[in-house]
User: Fold these one by one.
Assistant:
Number 1:
Amino acid sequence: MIRKCVLIALLVFMAVSSTLAEDGYRLWLRYDKITDSGKLKQYREYLKGYWLTHDSPTMQVIDDELQMALPGLLGSGVTKVSSVTNNGTLIIGKPSHPALQSLNLGAHLQNAGTEGFVITSTTLNKKKVIIIAANEDAGLLYGVFHLLKLMQTHKDLKDLTITSVPKIKYRILNHWDNLDRTVERGYAGFSIWDWHKLPDYIDPRYRDYARANASIGINGAVVTNVNANALVLTPAYLEKVAALANVFRPYGIRIYLTARFNAPMEIDKYETADPLDPKVRKWWADKVTEIYRYIPDFGGFVVKANSEGQPGPQNYNRTHADGANMLAEALKPHGGIVMWRAFVYDDKVPDDRHKQAYNEFVPHDGQLKDNVLIQVKNGAIDFQPREPFHPLFGAMPKTPLMMEFQITQEYLGFATHLVYLATLFKECLDADTYAKGPGSTVAKVIDGSLDGHSISGMAGVANIGTDRNWCGHPFGQANWYAFGRLAWDHQLSAEEIAEEWIRMTFGNDEIVISTILPMMMVSREITVNYMTPLGLHHLMGRNHHYGPGPWVDGGRPDWTSVYYHRADSMGIGFDRTTSGSDAVSQYFPPVAETFNSLEKCPEEYLLWFHHVPWDYKMKSGETLWNALVHKYYAGVDSVRWMQRMWNTLENRIDPYRFSQVKMLLNIQEKEAVLWRNSCVLYFQTFSRRPIPEGLEKPEHSLDYYMKLSFPYAPGIRPRW
Ligand code: GCV
């Protein structure tokens, strides 16, 4: 009996520990033993010992990381040394250290700033060494993570000569996390910030979060929702925020907060929050000074003002520039910045929503203080599966514009659809604005090189929550990873980032890589096909944004679907040409002309810019109606293809993550069918044309799909 109990306990333990081993918690920082014996031999030879040439909190976390990583990767411990006495020493230090001065590393680091690094294999005191050098500790940390990545992805460590410098200064996650721990548009559980237990209880997750971010170069976190709560600016909460900042600091991560514009009224009962009122200005200056007492390296504020019900300067007949400059002035003496969001639109403004941010902000070009960045979403509507780039990019040359991408999949299947977003991010970054002639890409606008700005930024709305695997879907991690990598270097390709991530996350089995990589690379296009093909947009369910809702009508027009697709008996699509809303004219000439022309407009944006007759002949020769239906069907077929691809990996991926992804792909297939059937049947009521021959017929009537309701779909703010 006792033996039986012991056996059962052992089996339970084994089951639990094997689950814990591959439950996704370790993200891409899995330090399992190198499986390639040749590489393992080389790494053991090159990394017999490591030397941290000075001491600091960041050097301490580097030490911790190496202590965790090297024994794992190499299968045996690596000695910490305090000088170079043997071949195979890894040296981590600044070029000014006496032992390194002879190598002239400073010359390589001249343009590396505080975060760049070099990694070089060389000889020192006649011993073979690898050196990671940087001007500041943050660069050393990034260099160490880079070296670990080389090992995790089985790269050769012979003859390393790497110099890496971030192209963008502020690389920031935006958490839409509320103080009650709900996460707006979050699909991976609750907020990881346990405000109630802070500052005394430091969840180990905070440190692992910081490690993960540092490993991909993210150097800032806005820990609160842009739909802001002023409470976070009060002492009780600042103490909690400071505790988080203390954890993040050695990892090179600064904390930022969202500033509720009427905080002086909400916290201290002021009668106004007018940004030109001296008392209000003083309130903010004092508040900022107070924040810096708690958090000496506080980064600054993100502000959503006069948008979707948030208070802002326009409540007092002041401008966005007045509001941003007031906060900028308060932050300036402390080195902080303001990230003022351009996501503004109003149903009271009788103009196409697409045009409103441009109209609002372009007149303020040149009026903003030098520590203000305008944070612009990648497209003019709202993180849709596909949008043309925002016309503001290139249109405010005197102002640093920063990018806002959405990593959380609000409009791309929540945390149940496998959608790799780097292809979406790249499509936008590589788009040519023509602001200063050909080659004026969005990437050059936001990295500051096009207009010579010294500050630049990229923000990503985080997809992180309390789920054990952080992002809900194991492949959601790839989007966090890709965001960080692109913020560091927007010239990386989506493909190379995906390959790195797969190798680090699932291992180096070439069959696994050659199966997963093509799935990831086409996954976003697949989703566009079954949700919003040919430039359609904003077709999702009302409020919660889950599932299809092309029929959504009534109430605030710019929150309906019919406002955007404009389907009628003649055709479908939003006429944004010069004879329609004229949004095309907000783009620079060659782009504007391309988008304006029915013939030249890329078909992926066709219905974004044109109202097109149902029988319009597409490039393929099909009618628009048939092409649209075929896109929806192709989307579903491709999800089925992804299912088949994934199933071939059954014995090559650990069982836990294999079955997790398998189940999620099953959900994705069901939901793709739901999208397809709902949209095709609904648009058919206008086109009055048949579903082309040979395609499976929708299982239910349109009425059935329209009656489906999802009152508890996740991610919605309670008060919406
Ligand atoms: C944080 C969309 C989302 C909102 C979000 C808003 C924004 O409208 O649905 O949840 O609010 O964008 O970016 O401010």
Number 2:
Amino acid sequence: MQTLPTFDLVLFGGTGDLAMRKLLPALYRRTCAGQVCADTRIIGAARSDLSREQYLAQVKSNCEAHLDGEFNERMWESFARCVDYCKVDAGEDLDYAALSRLLEGREDHVRIFFMSTAPNLFALICEGLARHSLVTSASRVVLEKPLGEDLVSSRQINERVGTAFREPQIFRIDHYLGKETVQNLLALRFGNMLFEPLWRRGRVRHVQITLAEDVGVERRAQFYDQTGALRDMVQNHLLQLLCIIAMEPPATANPDAMRDEKLKVLHALRPLAGNDARNNTVRGQYKAGAIAGQPVIGYLDEKDVPPNSVTETFVALKVEIDSWRWAGVPFYLRTGKRLQEKQSEIVVTFEDVPHALYERPEQLHSLNRLVIQLQPEEGITLNVLAKSPGEGMRLRPAELSLDFAEYFNGQRLDGYERLLTDIINGNLTLFMRRDELDAAWAWIDPIREAWQQYEERPKAYIAGTWGPAAASSLIVRDGFVWRNEL
Ligand code: NAP
């Protein structure tokens, strides 16, 4: 793999959960892969008054904990040489001056400001950076999700961030798009002749996208209760995956060509407002249950969740795209916490053959499907019918599978590693442009308004199941089932 250009990365929220669990281990792995040159600087920034040694001790124990046996002392020494810490309170002017001193004389290097803090600090920090002339022409800013809580607040953040950074300097991150499989989906669609002619109405019967987590709200209850599954998962990850599935082939691999096509999909989403939202969405909230045989508490008993909270921890939606390619093909999306297992997948189910020549299985749902598995393993499986061994032409379901890790010799970057290298290289393809974000919020807001208007409480589901029964009905009424219910 190519060595990355020398960069300075200032990690705001450098003591937080995301930085410690994902971002710093991702940077450590890229160092081990020989991509990070010795002159690079990674500066954790947060309010805590820590010495460099204290910060390094925290980073080290987290890298050890989150790198499953990949940690070694020799590599740690070379990674640690790049890492520093600077106390920066977002609202404290003097702290930016200290950061400025650390970055002095390095104006020629790629400079990245990664906002791994609460979104209400993004604009404040960007304005602080601009006031202290820390934004160079080679600077980039990375914004974590969720960017705002609705269209209005998202616009306000983007507006203020936009006073410090130009749009091509802004990287709005969606870590699902960093997954190898998602990019392989693009490769599969646009690098092969096989699927594209079938990738449309008349050939595709329906599409399912599931992002299921078995964990609960963990330590993020305060944040989660203000946000809910619709804003935490659908507005960004699910809609982005839907765009990748549904977009037209871009004319070039240029980032804006790709983002233009995704934007067209967002604009073509049939609005879900009022009764349409009510009929085509299901909200749920988990009750006590068991995950993998272990009892778990319900959402309302989680620490920091108000006892009367109506925040949804599950949402399922039926979405339609009003375009020539997709008219009449339903897209079913669902996501939730404390579901039976951690499983993220996209399932494209194709139409049945027009005339059945051979004896076929009774189970009508197990026909041609393309299953794109994102979690826990990444891979692609094509379900076909094949002749079963022995006499007669009896068809049975069979699978053509591609396990990326196995096929490509285990060379794999996790989502954040991939996206961080793209940011350092200045490649915007996998990052959301501002108009995409606006379009996503503009589609999401009426759904929340409808939920508020009808004052419906989320439907209860037992932790360890696949969500409320109504989520099954949402798809069964059209004659389909979720793949896990086949
Ligand atoms: P977190 O654990 O609460 O960390 C927040 C960080 O911000 C801490 O380092 C905190 O350190 C710092 N901070 C708080 N107030 C500050 C201030 N006034 N000035 C400067 N720094 C301040 O949050 P997180 O879970 O890492 O999440 C960070 C961002 O990533 C959020 O936008 C979240 O939505 C997003 N995200 C997180 C995850 C995840 O798995 N955790 C996944 C996807 C997206 P001090 O208290 O020392 O200042």
Number 3:
Amino acid sequence: MSTQALTHSPVWKELQAHHGELAGLHLRELFAADSRRGTSLTVEACGLYLDYSKNRVTGRTLELLLALAAERGLGGRIEAMFRGEKINTTEDRAVLHTALRAPRGEKIMVEGEDVVPAVHEVLDKMGAFADRVRSGAWRGQTGRKIRNVINVGIGGSDLGPVMAYEALKFFSDRALHCQFVSNVDSDDFAEAVCGLDPAETLFVISSKTFTTLETMTNAQTARDWVLRGLGGDESCVAKHFVAVSTNAEKVREFGIDPANMFGFWDWVGGRYSMDSAIGLSTMVAIGPDNFRALLAGFHEMDEHFRTAPLGENLPVLMGLLAVWYGDFFEAQTAAVLPYEQYLKRFPAYLQQLTMESNGKSVTLDGRHVDYNTGAIYWGEPGTNGQHSFYQLIHQGTHLIPCDFIGFAKTLNPIGRHHDILLANMFAQAEALAFGKTAEQVEAEGTRAELVPHRVFEGNRPSNTILAEVIDPQTLGKLVALYEHSVFTQGVIWDINSFDQWGVELGKVLAQRIIPELESQDAPDLQHDSSTNALIARYRRMNS
Ligand code: G6Q
């Protein structure tokens, strides 16, 4: 791989010059100049159709971006990840979420050991457990069937499972009521268990480390709630709690039978873990076969990412376009707009995946970057967003590249809903790209003073991803698409997309402040004047 600083590379400089030439060009002109643009700037792979023609790019842009990828050694870096090299250098770990979805029989070596058999052993154990809960063979302490499954976890041990549960609700067993508790805010726990009977409730404590403050606090509260509800006999913990963790000792200490612990490995990063045992609650909800289909979808996209030429590679193209906007157009944010209600938590999931991965400002060898890295990701499902923030995307001063995600078919065909929904998605991408000129507005007879207010400049870029229907396999493909796009961006920026040191400082400071809030005697506060005053006021308000 090139060790030359990114912004000094000849390709980078060419991209800068090219951006200067292209910045004044309108998408209207690009489309007018090439009647085939809308079909040629597209790629179809793994059942996903990506239309990237409404981006501010030409053939030359793509050539240069692909040259940049080659110069940064993207192909070699992809191989290194799949091979299990320790590319997470600051934590000295391999990055092998791709091994979690490798088919039985494939070989992936980590420190001399093939990890694929162990992956399938855990999946089989999860499958047997999920079947027992779903069939009613697993009973609570009083012999009652489990009706409520509550995943307790946070960050990577929550966002993937919640997103997948919501996305695949159609495929879930409706006799089971699934809940997710993540926030240390007691409101979260209280509302999740409101009206539930502990005798019918199973908690899945999902924590890689089994030491995370929020999760352990909620797990302890859950334990108390179950014990209180079931007469205080400690033996009920084994019937109402299972754990997903890499820390067997802590799990045992909590009172969970290690036979009911589902393991994973340090080469699975939290935000890349929804397809590991962290997906246990997802599997209980949708069943082992659907979970396997989800994994098959992930794997199909993995293979595409690994083998497709860079210019026809969905995650690579999306990653390079993100670099193009972030570094050359100085776009600060990117919107993800699923026109599928089942994907309502997908933007929240992507926030962690993208921002915890690429929100970095030093290179792999510790030098401060002199270019933009990861953008701010956000979004809401369509059409709700249209009646909220789309105004700013259409007429505001910020350039916000958008990803529209839609499906040809709905799982709930009712009347005209789906055609109306998709018409809106196509219309928004069209309006953003082409806008409406002052001449067009005038020709409609608009009063002169209103014309500037009703002009849409257009030239707002977007991708459109169209797939057949939201199902387990497609969800796997979509998530893997974004995972690998994030990796592509990280490689170009020469950053470690797999650590998250930025979350540590606040955790440490909170541990210092907790006793200052709880102590009986006034603490000797040694923070800055603002933090001191806030703590003192909080204490007064609670006295
Ligand atoms: C993700 C992060 C982080 C992690 C949570 C929960 O990549 O590592 O979000 O998932 O902090 O950690 P535990 O699973 O260890 O409780």
